[in-house]
Amino acid sequence: MDINWNIIGIVAILVVVLVVLTIRKNQKEKKKLENLLNNDFKKAEKDRVDADDSANEK
Question: Is Transmembrane among the key words of this record (predicted)?
Fold first, then answer.
């Protein structure tokens, strides 16, 4: 049985490219999701300023 190394090499290269592209896409989606989750909330407004609160943001 003769092994066709050319076909195996091409398939291996395609698999590596597919894995790299999938990882890059997942990283982009992870950044988008992280930004969405970090910025998608309503801040509770404080009526009273706490002396212990160092930020004192309203």
Answer: yes
